[in-house]
Fold:
Amino acid sequence: MEKIKKNIKDLYDDLKSYQQQKIDNFISNFNIINDLSVVTLSSENIICRKCKHNKFVKNGISNGIQRLKCTNCNSTQFHDANTPLYNMKLKDKWPDFVFIMLDAEQSKTCKNISKELEISTKTAHRWRHKFLSSLNSVSDLEILEETELDEVYFPFTVKGVIGKEKFDVYIAPDHKDNIESEFRIEEKQKEEEHFQSIYMCIHNRNSDFDFIQIKNQKKGIVSEADLTRIMQDIDISGKTIITDKEPSMKSFLRKKEGVNHLTFKSSDMKNGVIEQKNVHNNNINNTMMLLRNWMKDFFGVSTKYLLNYLKWFRFMRKFEIFKLEKMLKLTFLDKNSSQRFNDIFKDYVTFVRL
Structure:
């Protein structure tokens, strides 16, 4: 061991000063990150789990974690409430877990993660979606001057054993069995009838992109009403929007003030015919090709969790040089990710029944 340490020290001494500085900063940041008690003690964005108030006073320490008391309703909660770390028993392994999730070279299947970190596959799966629930709010897409829009389709998939999962507590106990039975039958029918889950891909010409859930349907194009519903909070006024010549999209954008709508014919694109320079959705097509290759490692993704995976892929593409320590701090300080994680199934039920 002493020999190994000596060799590392010799290598360090041989580095240039700026290289040594990078290593010093790297180690310093990780020392901070690994001390979760320091990172999680930021008072940023803390919200009461009961009344949503944001003013607290300290109320003692339990198991090494600061407790807080809400000045509005007097309820108490741990300082890490609503974050991915809440009620987590193996918090010291979270930095290693995030590193694996962001490392393009490592396999990210639950089986491999559980083996690497010596945790159960169930814990690896739960941690994965706690982490991905934080990614959902890391960076909103900024619509730039030229933006491509297109619907993308995925097979509706119910991965796992039907009926094995438990319904969340938001369902009243006296109606739980009937609702569960009814919804599981509905899920199975959609899968057997080859329904497709449709998402809108919004792709800027600067390589940033994002996805929005539209609906599940068996066949046919997306309606103008569906486009109006999902795009109502997205400001595209004054922008150039590039799409194919789908009638519902043309009708929807015609009603948007200040939008310059450019269209192309999909069949011409496939045959190499270009009507106008730069009027295409090649960015979306390339992104979808990369996405489908990336998803092969997971051997199928349940529709229930598909949006999380799409957000994950976006993050991996956009933040290839995103610093691990910054990402860790974001997950620690995100006071809404726990609620988003708990709402996954509720949101899924709503999406399936659109």
Observations:
- The chain has four domains: 1-34, 41-80, 82-138+322-354, 146-156+194-318.
- DSSP finds 15 helices and eight strands in the chain.
